[in-house]
Automatic annotation (TrEMBL):
Pathway(s): Carbohydrate degradation; glycolysis; D-glyceraldehyde 3-phosphate and glycerone phosphate from D-glucose: step 2/4; Carbohydrate biosynthesis; gluconeogenesis
Top-level enzyme category: isomerase
Function recorded in the entry: Catalyzes the reversible isomerization of glucose-6-phosphate to fructose-6-phosphate.
Protein name: Glucose-6-phosphate isomerase
Record's subcellular location: Cytoplasm
GO molecular function: carbohydrate derivative binding; glucose-6-phosphate isomerase activity; monosaccharide binding
Length: 532
């Protein structure tokens, strides 16, 4: 399958996308669903290649695999776990079973408890020592940080609860800077950690507890925990009434729909949080019931497979134009790279093809003044995923939103069209002649024919954000199925964790660097000599 795809990519490599762009293409190479429009007409995909990719989905057993996920079968085979983040947004509460056991009563019960707690914090009936809570600090990392941090920023117009802050880095500067302006007597600390063992999170949680203890006699009374490890949350001293649990079938990077979303729920309120869940639920329904060609997640995935495994483009840029989506690229980096950055297939064999691409990005117009130069004229092709809403929120600044949209659309057009040597010469007018004109013109050539997709939505509401995130989750799932890998484990982060534990006592001087390689030993020596 991969050889066929690569051969097809080589065949059409130099074909101008513009040549494919007849009147029907924009409709035929786009999907509209769940209030979103996904346009992939500005890629080099043609109907024949798309059919080939869709046939791969059948070969890979996508339909069965998709049902296996929704039905709670243990598709995370290396950890023996089901993958049921979709149950967290199954708002009608219909049964979802793992080994005959319906998980929904517990899911709905936890959601109701979260809502009760969020209301009490927002309404001021849950108080800190100094009165109603003014600030919430979520301490977590990876999936226990990126989701709620990204969504809380994205949904700022709905933010009518206490201020929410996010601490993740074990660098003491992060927590120190966040806590410095806060009053411990009116702060709620939420320790978000599925395992409740993650060193960064537990270290920051202890720092926060010590900070609070200076002013608050019983600091644990102003702590809540989001975790699957209730024994550890109790050992930390957090009352069960403020512990919100979830089970091992919720992966860290897929967890913001449940308890890990508590800080977001406190920020925007339970009703808006339910809208967020319902947006994701709508996308789940669309994914589960649509044929590949009409399925937005499947087509987004197939474009990704075409660009990465077919055409060999090693990275993909995610370029949301709205500033409030500034953390979306970081969120998607974890979602996509921790899920599909694998080297062996489900059966342990080395992959015959590259796994997931490097995902990166920044909000649109800022990126235009930073790295778009390389995207337009560099020697490597970077498929771009643009996204923008039709409406902003800022009354009186509609003209700025129009400029934002114009910039977004202009970039994908420019990437596709480019500018040839004649046009470059013409753009110089009569400023140069002869050889100097040629030299100057060459610098102004844009090769064009660079692929991009565009995702449009009406407005960045909680429901729309829910749909967008679920779209990307399912995209990752489909790409993982085609690659034959397990998208739901993350063994690749373990080795570094173990070695960091090993190195901490070497840096503090409790242990020597015996057994370390010469480079690491020298770096340790240098840091110690410099005051570490
Ligand atoms: O980076 C590895 C990882 O396990 C992520 O998958 C997870 O989101 C993160 O660490 C945090 O884990 P926890 O929620 O258990 O603290």
């Amino acid at each position: 399958m991969w050889d066929k795809l690569k051969a097809r990519a080589a065949e059409v490599e130099n074909r101008p996308i513009l040549d494919l762009m007849d009147q029907d293409r924009a409709h035929e190479f786009s999907v509209e669903a769940c209030g979103l429009l996904f346009d992939y007409s500005k890629t080099n995909l043609d109907a024949e290649t798309r059919d080939m990719l869709i046939a791969f989905c059948d070969e890979a057993g996508l339909r069965d695999r998709r049902e296996a996920m929704f039905e709670g079968r243990r598709i995370n085979e290396t950890e023996g776990r089901a993958v049921l983040h979709t149950a967290l947004r199954n708002l009608d509460g219909g049964p979802v079973r793992i080994d005959e056991r319906d998980v929904m009563p517990k899911v709905m019960g936890t959601l109701a408890r979260m809502e009760g707690f969020a209301r009490s914090v927002r309404e001021g009936t849950f108080k800190g020592r100094g009165g109603p809570i003014t600030d919430v600090v979520n301490i977590g990392i990876g999936g226990s940080d990126l989701g709620p941090a990204m969504a809380t920023q994205a949904l700022a117009p709905w933010h009518d609860g206490p201020r929410c802050h996010f601490v993740s880095n074990v660098d003491g500067a992060h927590i120190a800077d966040i806590l410095a302006p806060l009053d411990p007597e009116t702060t709620l600390v939420i320790v978000a950690s599925k395992t409740f063992t993650t060193v960064e999170t537990m270290t920051n949680a202890e720092t926060a507890r010590a900070w609070m203890a200076e002013k608050v006699r019983d600091p644990a009374a102003q702590f809540a925990a989001l975790s699957s490890a209730q024994d550890r949350t109790s050992a930390f001293g957090i009352s069960e009434t403020r512990v919100f649990g979830f089970e091992d079938w919720v992966g860290g990077r897929y967890s913001m729909w449940g308890p890990i979303g508590l800080s977001l729920m406190i920020a925007i309120g339970p009703r808006a949080f339910r809208d967020f869940l319902s947006g994701a639920e709508t996308m789940d329904g669309h994914f589960r019931s649509s044929d590949p060609i009409e399925s937005m997640p499947v087509m987004l995935a197939l474009v990704g497979i075409w660009h990465n495994q077919g055409c060999g483009y090693a990275t993909r840029a995610v370029l949301p134009y709205e500033q409030r989506l500034a953390r979306l690229p970081a969120y998607l980096q974890q979602l996509e790279m921790e899920s599909n950055g694998k080297r062996v297939s489900m059966d342990g064999e080395v992959l015959p093809v590259d796994s997931g691409p490097v995902v990166w990005g920044e909000p649109g117009t800022n990126g235009q003044h930073a790295f778009y130069q390389l995207i337009h004229q560099g020697t490597r092709i970077v498929p771009c995923e643009f996204m923008v809403g039709a409406q902003g929120f800022e009354e009186g600044l509609e003209h700025q939103h129009r400029l934002l949209m114009a910039n977004c659309l202009a970039q994908s057009e420019a990437l596709m069209r480019g500018r040839d040597l004649d046009a470059a010469r013409a753009s110089l007018g009569d400023r140069f002649t002869g050889a100097e004109l040629e030299r100057q013109a060459r610098h102004r050539v844009f090769p064009g024919n660079r692929p991009s997709t565009t995702l449009l939505y009406e407005r960045l509401t909680p429901a729309v954000l829910g749909s967008i995130v679920a779209l990307y989750e399912h995209r990752v799932f489909v790409e993982g199925v085609l690659l034959g890998i397990n998208s739901f484990d993350q063994w690749g982060v373990e080795l570094g964790k173990e070695l960091a534990n090993d190195l901490a006592p070497v840096l503090s001087g409790e242990k020597d660097s015996a057994g370390k390689d010469a480079s690491t030993a020298r770096l340790v020596d240098w840091l110690r000599a410099s005051g570490a």
